[in-house]
Amino acid sequence: MTDATASAGANGAAASPMRPETLAIAVHYGEPMSGRPGLSLRGGTYAQLPLTGAVFTEVDLTDVDFRQADLREAVFDRCDLSRANFLGADLRGATWHQCRGADVLLGGANLHKASLIGCELPQLRATGAVLRLATLHATTLAGADLRDAELDGTTWIDCTLSGLDLRDARLTHGTFSGCDLAGVAWDGARLERVVFHRSALLQRNFRGLDILGCQFAGCDLTGSDFSDAVLGRSSFQGATLEGVRFTGAQAANCLFPGALAAGCDFSGAVLTQAVFAGAQLAGARFAGAQLREAFFGDALLSGADLRGCELTYADFSRADLRGADLRGAAMFRTRLHRAQREGSQGVDRSAALGDDAPLAEAEQWRPAA
Question: Which of 20, 32, 117, 317 falls between 20 and 30 A from 369, CA-CA?
Answer without folding.
Answer: 317
